[in-house]
TrEMBL record:
Could methylate the ribose at the nucleotide 34 wobble position in tRNA. This is Putative tRNA (cytidine(34)-2'-O)-methyltransferase. S-adenosyl-L-methionine binds at residues 102, 123, 131. It comes from Botrimarina mediterranea. Belongs to the class IV-like SAM-binding methyltransferase superfamily. RNA methyltransferase TrmH family. TrmL subfamily. Residues 4-141 form the tRNA/rRNA methyltransferase SpoU type domain. One of its GO terms (molecular function) is RNA binding. Keywords: Cytoplasm, Methyltransferase, S-adenosyl-L-methionine, Transferase, tRNA processing. It is an enzyme of class 2 (transferase). PANTHER family: TRNA (CYTIDINE(34)-2'-O)-METHYLTRANSFERASE (PTHR42971:SF1). It is found in: Cytoplasm.
Length: 153
């Protein structure tokens, strides 16, 4: 089982997803993509951002949230949202956890965040920034999780 799962809920920008894929390869994490996607999987921009790492990536596309929850081996999901209950560095990550990120334009829908008290995390930024780029957010959270687990490659 991968040490970590990265979930992109309805990602829209191929460059971001390609960069997230590279980060997942660096961490040995599995990438899950929840449809609908804002691009085709064979998109040239996706491949360009993922470079030659994409062929080394452990990844899976699922049709919807229910499909993901049936297939995802982890029951410990951490939801990243600017409306998080606490900073991501306060979470206690464990091997096999899933880090869930929303689309670039809409984030995670309220329906996924309901009932997730204590599992909604934010990445603090100054008031001058609405949010960080999706791929930057995944890298910050992924490497923090690995640091905590003592699992950095």
């Amino acid at each position: 089982m991968p040490p970590l799962h990265i979930v992109l809920y309805q990602p829209e920008i191929p460059y971001n997803t390609g960069s997230v894929g590279r980060t997942c390869v660096a961490l040995g994490a599995k990438l899950w993509l929840v449809r609908p996607l804002g691009f085709q999987i064979d998109d040239r921009q996706l491949r360009r951002a993922g470079l030659d790492y994409w062929r080394r990536l452990d990844w899976e596309v699922v049709d919807d949230w229910d499909d993901l929850t049936r297939k995802l081996p982890s029951e410990r999901l951490w939801y990243f949202t600017k409306r998080g209950d606490s900073g991501f560095y306060e979470a206690q990550f464990e091997r096999g956890d899933a880090l869930v990120f929303g689309s670039e334009s809409a984030g995670l829908p309220p329906s996924l965040l309901e009932g997730a008290e204590g599992r909604r995390l934010r990445i603090p930024t100054s008031e001058n920034v609405r949010s960080l780029n999706l791929s930057v957010s995944v890298a910050l959270a992924g490497f923090e999780a690995f640091r905590q687990m003592g699992a950095l490659p």
